[in-house]
Amino acid sequence: MKYLDEYRDGERAQQFAREIHRLTTRPWNIMEVCGGQTHAIVKFGIDELLPKFITLIHGPGCPVCVTPLEMIDKALEIAARPGVIFASFGDMLRVPGSTTDLLSVKATGGDVRIVYSPLDAVKLAEQNPAREVVFFGVGFETTAPATAMAVYQAAQKELKNFSMLISHVLVPPAIEALMSSPNCKVQGFLAAGHVCTVMGYWEYPPIAAKYHVPIVVTGFEPLDILQGVLMVVQQLESGRAEVENQYTRAVRREGNQSAQEIIRKVFKVVPRKWRGVGEIPQSGLGLNDAYAAFDAEKRFGLADRHVDEPTECLSGLVLQGQIKPHECPAFGTRCTPEHPLGATMVSSEGACAAYYRYRRQPAVVEQK
Amino acid sequence: MEPPSDFTPACPIPISQYPHVLMAHGGGGKLMHQLIGKMFLTAFTNPLLEMQHDSTVVEWTGKKLAFTTDSYVVRPIFFPGGDIGSMAVHGTVNDLAMSGARPLYLSSAFILEEGLPMETLWRVVCSMRDAAQRGGVQIITGDTKVVDKGKGDGLFINTAGIGIIEHEQKIAPQNVRPGDGVLVSGDLGRHGMAIMAVREGLEFESQIESDSAPVAGLVMQLLKAGIEIHCLRDLTRGGLASALNEIAEAAGVKIAVDEKSVPVREDVHAACEMLGLDLLHVACEGRFAAFIAAKDVERALQIMRGHAVGAASAMIGQVAESSTPLVTLKSSIGVDRILDMPSGEQLPRIC
Fold it and tell me: What is the radius of gyration, based on Cα positions, of chain B?
């Protein structure tokens, strides 16, 4: 398929891998920020092609995984209320809250609907004027413009029965938080290509300079990731720490200006809790005062609800790259996609789900 | 009043993690297998049921008969490439064919919702009639029930089928052997994506049509040509990944698949990529996997490709010995990984 097969070519992948092998003289830890990249790495076996002493550390860039437990619990509570239509991206439905998940709420009579775009939720509100329609707005900068546009349109249409439960998060503050941790092992970053499609990469040079860390904006296909790794290794081996763009077919330095504009119009930057990590200052988006009427937390009286994270799930350490998924004692035993302890085991971008799905038995790799 | 004795806690519900049935319990993945294994197999246990084949083979006065049943609840009722009626005939005909049986007779039970337009019902019935003619079966018994408006979703159909086995081959998952070639009878994922496109109002450059079709004729040709078939499995809910995992488990073997050789149409592939769905988990309604003795693989492929419903047949992998049952997939960049069974329903991803 055009724009796909050429980025999955086995021969070219081997060429990149050989070049990385040739250049690498010592161990390097490189973090891929986005969960989509983690899945591509594990699904295609990209890390198997790399030199043994290049370690890919899986980053916090899975929006489902970092949504805090208390936000899931709030979603479950709203979705279970009579008269509510709760609209969400499909990925969120299996995520475990303290006691249940959205699929179970649906099974016991809650009106939970999967939508492909937040704008579909606005349509639902128009079609069902007697019902409260709530959209679960999660994600990084990638999904924020669409969420913002939905709120903007709802305001234009003066919809009184539409609101949003918002848990949007931002990538650059998370990278900063990781780099300033004393346990941080990361020496280079593959920045998330799709986030940069929206935001550009003008935010990254100060981070690269402050922590002396190379950052390469990288796509999601095997050849993208291999080339991204090669560019990071080239910088590391030559002592450089710059921001480079591998994903030139989708990303410009300034990003998508109109998308950024709608984000600024509707949202303000707020402190945000990350599941398993804790609160990171200035790391999220919340509705600004002009659109505060669409805040579902306020509308349903849940703003003051706080829930503690369970201790058995080590997803916080996984999300910070401090352990690999299979190093968690619950991995594959007490925690499986059918009975998850945390979101990293169920999300299509979760690192634990990737390891469980594609390489549960290490023997597969050894037999090669 | 004394409570009935069978309500005592001495008979605990065998599934405790989920107090309610979820959609995923019917999705063809792990939760459905748990439900079947822990509840239905446990309650109804007998050697025939434990074969867990698409249809069960019973011997009756020296003849071998295959028997199967399936219910059809597809939405929308009419979709590009088929409808609930033709699907209800094809699906059951195909389940019989997967035992190597020649399908003979079907039953058809209708659960109709009050208010269903007669015209809709007539279209479905005509479609069943035509599908039965094409599949060489007769619908010889049936049932009709009507439920209150709002208590059914238009109409549901159940069909059961009987076929006859007229050869000496044993076709079942347990007969798969190391060295067998793994063949599929055409491009994958079309039915699932056709349904999803209509249901979600997704528009692609060309319309994706369901692959719903009867495959019994093709299976009969393979048998007539004396191809040594070890197992057949139709690739419905859960797709190729579920089918191969079930068979690897039953036969205690490793099945190694090469991703590059899996046939898929470009529009279906694009739709899967866009929605973040795994093609190998998407349902087909007119495709099957065949485990063929190595010596007969080439001949089998030739026959399959010569048949109208098997034109895009391909060999996608091989069976090997293994201490633990396993399905692996060689990715396009040449690295092996596990091909797992889906856990429940596939859910579209966020971004």
Answer: 20
Q: Domain check: are A122 and A239 in the same one?
A: no
Question: Does residue A321 contact residue A177 with C-beta atoms inside 8 Å?
Answer: no
A304, part of any domain:
no
Q: Would you call A183 helix, strand, or coil by DSSP?
A: coil
The domain total for chain A is: 3
Query: A330 and A215, same structural domain?
Result: no
Please check the confidence at residue B1 and state whether its pLDDT lies above 70: no
Kindly state the average pLDDT of the residues A267-281. Answer: 92
Asked if residue B59 and residue B37 are part of one domain, the reply reads no
pLDDT of B53-103, one tens digit each? Answer: 889 999 989 999 999 999 999 999 999 999 999 999 999 999 999 999 999
Residue B133 domain-assigned?
yes
Query: Is A91–B31 a contact, with Cβ atoms under 8 angstroms apart?
Result: no
Distance CA B254, CA B155 (A): 41
ipTM of the complex: 0.84
Inspect the interface and report whether the beta carbons of B333 and A8 lie closer than 8 Å.
yes
Whether the predicted pLDDT of B111 surpasses 60: yes
Identify whether residues A183 and A263 lie together within a single domain: no
User: For chains A and B, what is the number of CB pairs under 8 angstroms?
Assistant: 126
> How far is the C-alpha of B173 from the C-alpha of B163, rounded, in Å?
19
In a domain, B208, yes or no: yes
Task: For residue B32, list chain A residues with Cβ-Cβ distance below 8 A.
Answer: none
Strand (E) or helix (H) holding B28:
none
Residues A103-133: b if buried by 16+ CB within 10 A, e if exposed: bbbbbeebbbbbbebbbbbbebbeeeeeebb
Decide if A308 is inside a domain.
Answer: no
Q: Report the Cα–Cα distance between both ends of chain A, in Å, rounded.
A: 28
Strand order in the sheet with A215-218: A54-61, A28-34, A188-192, A215-218, A243-245
Domain for residue B201, yes or no? yes
pLDDT tens per residue, range A223-244: 999 999 999 999 999 999 999 9
Q: Is the pLDDT of residue A212 over 60?
A: yes
Closest residue to B351, CB basis, from A5, A139, A336: A139
In chain A, the residue whose alpha carbon lies closest to the alpha carbon of B33 is A338
- B90 and B238 together in one domain: no
CB spacing of A48 vs B335 below 8 angstroms: yes
A133 and A273 co-located in one domain: yes
CB B335 to CB A45 under 8 A? yes
Would you call B333 and A359 a contact, using CB atoms and an 8 Å cutoff? no
The pTM for the full model equals 0.89
Say if CB B274 and CB B200 are below 8 A apart. Answer: no
Give pairs for B75-78: CB < 8 Å, separation 24+.
B75/B153, B75/B154, B75/B195, B75/B199, B76/B195, B76/B198, B76/B199, B77/B120, B77/B124, B77/B154, B77/B155, B78/B123
What interhelical angle do A257-266 and A144-156 show, nearest 10? 60
Contact B337 A106 (CB under 8 A): no
Domain membership of residue B348 (yes or no) is no
Mean pLDDT calculated for residue range B283-293: 97
Q: Are residues A225 and A354 in the same domain?
A: no
B335, A44 Cβ separation under 8 angstroms: yes
Model confidence over B305-341: pLDDT tens digits? 999 999 999 999 999 999 999 999 999 999 999 999 8
| Radius of gyration over every alpha carbon of chain A, rounded to an integer in angstroms | 21
Question: Is the pLDDT at A4 greater than 90, yes or no?
Answer: no
Instruction: Tell whether A151 and A293 lie within a shared domain.
Output: yes
Contacts with B333 from chain A: Cβ below 8 Å: 8-10, 13-14, 44-46, 49, 222
Q: What is the pLDDT of residues B128-161, one digit of tens each?
A: 999 999 999 999 999 999 999 999 999 999 999 9
Contact A1 B270 (CB under 8 A): yes
Distance from CA of A285 to the nearest CA of B (A): 17
pLDDT value of position A363: 38
